[in-house]
Amino acid sequence: MYKTLDNILTQLEDNKALDIISIDLKGKSDIADFLVIATGTSNRHVGSLSENLISELKKDGIKDIKAEGINKSDWVLIDSGDVIVHIFRKEVREFYNLEKLWADAELLKYSDEINKKKSL
Fold it and tell me: What 8-state DSSP symbol labels residue 60?
């Protein structure tokens, strides 16, 4: 599962997603172990990030990936089982502010996670 999370974070970073964060949901929700939120610069970028991520998850052997919102690409939700990914356009992310909903969970920016791994 951490491998899946790491692959998702790396894929988003490699494809120039902005403001990538992960939220540890273990013990706080039964829907998933982690939630990842990222921003794309445009509808086209959000769609491309989503399609590339789904393709990579399939290559990693993850089955039954569910995705919603790819046609409009304002907000795409990708459910890979233990990790749920939300990819937004900036304005849509600011409007819904999912980070605030999970304020009591551990929130890590992608750069924080890299530094955490380096210290291990």
Answer: T
The Cα–Cα gap between 86 and 74 comes to 10
Q: What is the pLDDT along the chain (120 residues), one digit of tens a residue?
A: 588 999 999 999 999 999 999 999 888 888 999 999 999 999 999 999 999 999 999 999 999 999 999 999 999 999 999 999 999 999 999 999 988 887 776 667 765 555 455 444
Chain centroid, CA 17 distance in Å? 10
At residue 13's C-alpha, the angle toward residues 71 and 22, to 5°, is 85
What three-state secondary structure class fits 14?
A: helix
Three-class SS state of 3 = helix
Please state, in angstroms and rounded to a whole number, the distance separating the CA atoms of residues 49 and 77. 11
Domains of the chain: 2-109 (3.30.460.10)
